[in-house]
Write a structure and sequence with these properties.
With about 260 residues, the protein is of the alpha+beta class. Helix content is about 15%, strand content about 45%.
Length: about 260
Amino acid sequence: MLNLCKTFLLLLAIYVAATGHPAYAMDIPFVDKKPVFIRLKTEVDTLLRFPEPVKTINGATRLVVGPANESSPDYSILKVSPRIKRGSGSVVFILNSGKVVMLSFAVDPSNSNRNHSFFDFVEDRAASKEKTESAKISHVDFMRSMLLQKRIRGFKESRVSQEINTGNQDTDMELRKIYQGSEYNGYVYEIKNKNKKKTLVIDVRNLKLGKEMSLVCASVRYPFLAPGESTKLWVLARSDSSPERVMLPYTKIKVKRG
């Protein structure tokens, strides 16, 4: 720890002497495996300080990356410089504990003087706790909470009104609510039977949502929809799912008239 402090103070002194600007670290809160963004200078190295040593670096094709103090390497403080004069990129830092800092960056010489040169990555514990809590909830409890319109801890709830193109002439479908989490999302849809002569039988067992295997489970309030009737559809899917890409399976039953 003493060597770490000495290294950082030495680099601060070098920066002040070289640029004539006051040096201070800008805190960058991060959550495991969630992207963060910074702007990089072109004329001087940028220092990145992590809460623990970095063991693996992936995707640093547009950056020169190395320990800040090469004579006494400490991989919790790295210096980076862009290989490009203008543009953007991304790099992944995997810490000793396995936590991942996903860094996106931009390089723009016209704004270089206003960019910071020291970034201190600090874990956003509140967001990390929320992420952990959202991962703990079971699929059954998640679906039950959506059906009962309860707030789900660890998920951001948003009311929306988005028409969904189902690709058929028998139904109108609208996305009404989104529960957004770190690993899973919940969606609430409203479906209306537009067919004036036939009842629709909705089969959620064969429901598809965007990418293959993105759907976790689904439930419909009324699987039998008479002409003009509406129902709600609740869906639990992976967070990378596309709520607008719904393939709604159903069959049509002719309405018997007395």
